Amino acid sequence: MRKFTFAIALLGSLGTAGLATSASAAPGAPMGVAAPDAVTQVYMTPMERRMMERRMMRRHMERRMMRREMMRRDMRRDMRRGM
């Protein structure tokens, strides 16, 4: 019984150690491998920027129109109720 309890405790401690190492935020690379010194900056082209702006404007307009439509429905509902 004593060996069985010891074996379960040993397996439990190994299991938690394995979870702790796998859940860490550090990369699994060896210690000798280092990150590059310089990070290259990637710029957005004017066309990409314009496409992004147009997409954002379209979304904004859709949300605005949806909000106005919902308010109109609410007013109509209030008018039908006789408020």
Structural features, described:
- The structure is a single chain.
- With about 80 residues, the protein is mainly α.
- It has a domain at about 55-83.
- It has two helices and no strands.
- It has helices spanning about 1-20, 45-80.
- The chain is flat, with a radius of gyration of 30 Å.
- The protein starts with a helix and ends with a helix.
- The model has no long low-confidence stretch (mean pLDDT about 80).
- Keywords: Signal.
Task: Spell out the blueprint of helices and strands.
Layout: H1 2-22, H2 46-81
- Return the string of H and E elements: HH
Structure summary, number of beta strands: 0
State the separation between the terminal residues, measured CA to CA. Answer: 80 Å
Nearest-integer average pLDDT:
78
Helix count from the secondary structure assignment: 2
Major sheet summary line: none
The gyration radius over C-alpha positions equals 30 Å
| Proportion in β-strands | under 5%
Structural class: mainly alpha
Helix content: 55-70%
* General shape: flat
Keywords: Signal
